[in-house]
Specification:
Blueprint lengths: L5 H8 L17 E7 L2 E6 L9 H13 L6 E6 L12 H7 L2
Parallel strand pairs: 2-3
Antiparallel strand pairs: 1-2
Helix pairs in contact: 1-2
Length: about 100
Amino acid sequence: MAEVTVDDVQEALENVIDPELGLDFVELGLVYDIAVEGEEVFISFSLTSAGCPIGPQVSEQMEEFVGELEGVSAVHPKLVFTPQWTPDRMSEDAKFALGF
């Protein structure tokens, strides 16, 4: 069985789209940390604002897309607000698309 890598997880997370901005969580810089421990994946992520209501939906999408990877038995998304997200965390492509 192939061991899943952080790159594999990051690629799967590119399918998690912010519905308001239409860009994925990786491009937006909302994925803070990915750790792979055996068959378990731990993901720390944030939202563009603390009042954003899509946290549970995002966690479900992360579990779904990362859980489909071969060699993954469990996905543990964790919503964090430290450090606070800023547009500086976005990729250059995302900044361009959103006019930053």
